[in-house]
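Deliverable D5.2: sample structural annotation.
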Amino acid sequence: MDPAPSLRATRRGFLSLTAVGAALTALSRLPAAGAVATNRCETTFFSEHERELLTGVVERMVATGAPDAPAVRETGSIEVIDRICAGLDPGVSEVLPNLLRLVEWGPLLFDFTPTRFSKMSDAEKDASLRAWMTSRLDLRRRAFYALRNLSYLGYYSQDATWALIGYQGPFVLPEETPP
């Protein structure tokens, strides 16, 4: 009998890991145009607890330090991300709720820090996310970029945040008055 059957590599485990990697890669390369296409979706993708975890991640991902930057909670960022994820192929988006739980417990699992992400100070959260970004584990880096991409799509799609990146809004030609 194998003393550690859970550590044995299996074809199913490899295929599952490959699928998760492919989903995270797709999310990390999600084009900004995807936000426009899925804004009409009315379903809710994330649970309330997952939305709170996502809010904490987005707040740190988009933190600019600018005093006039609108808070994530004051924008529709999380709703936009929720609609984007609800409109994606389930094969791509189904890993996200588990990824948020992994970020929540990541300090304990990866950094051996006896706390959860949501209980950390802003500086500690930044260090935790930096560890995801620079990890030797490819899947962990992909997960970071997937979350960062979703954070940027959600936050910078809000009119109130455009000034932070120097965008003055869409160019609209004045309507011509008929003679």
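Annotation notes: Residues 1-7, 32-41 have pLDDT under 50 and may be disordered. The chain has eight helices and no strands.
The annotation will be released with the project's public dataset once the embargo ends.
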